[in-house]
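The instructor's notes for this session suggest beginning with a concrete chain rather than abstract definitions. Hand out the sequence below and ask the class to guess, before any prediction is shown, which regions might be ordered.
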Amino acid sequence: MARAALSGRLTWRAGTLVEARPETPTARTLVLDVPDWPGHLPGQHVDVRLTAPDGYRAQRSYSIASAWQEGGKVELTIQRLDDGEVSPYLTDVLEVGDQIELRGPVGGWFVWREAQQHPVLLLAGGSGVVPLMAMVRARGIARAKQPFRMIYSARTPEDVLYREELPRHVRDDLGFDLFLNFTRKAPEGSPNPPKRIDVPTINTHGWPPDFTPDCYVCGPTTFVETAADILVALGHDPKRIRTERFGGTS
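After discussion, reveal the predicted structure:
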């Protein structure tokens, strides 16, 4: 069974784009129908491969934004990198009905499972919110009782992914709290000036370390290193801090 499951994850599958929606001026969510999709855990990712007419191939990894669903659709939220080989095609060119190749799901460490009983702290920098959003969605579908807190750092209000959906989770679920931190421009009238995440931010809006929360940190390398160091300095157990990082800036 384990060998068969591993083989399935290593298999390239053709995913057909059935829906696309803009999230920000530079980010787009792709809803893909992937035949024989084995299901996934929130926090996992897929490899995406594009093949040019001349045979040239480019491959990148993207976090899955949707909650787990066996045989269901897979959602990816892609942030365009102007000098990228893959993301500009996915955000600006790919049309409904087109196909791309996917392989996965990949990853077993940076995941949240419903069986985990501890409170959860999600720390997101920029598009690092994508796998954390899968966790929020999965918790909602499962009607899990573990309380979640998310600290989400973005450049400006216009750069916030899922900016309509996230407040709905706050309104509909008393166990989910959200704090938006802005590094370049805060909303008009906000009492919080733009700044990078720091000790007071995490100390005020995260969980106390004696609550022994499961902490998930995702974003650019500098964001992840800073946030993880702050958590440890505040007394959180390093074994309960899971990180995932990528290139770029927050």
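Then share the key points. Residues 2-106 form a domain with the Elongation Factor Tu (Ef-tu); domain 3 fold (CATH 2.40.30.10). The CA atoms of residues 147 and 175 lie 5 Å apart.
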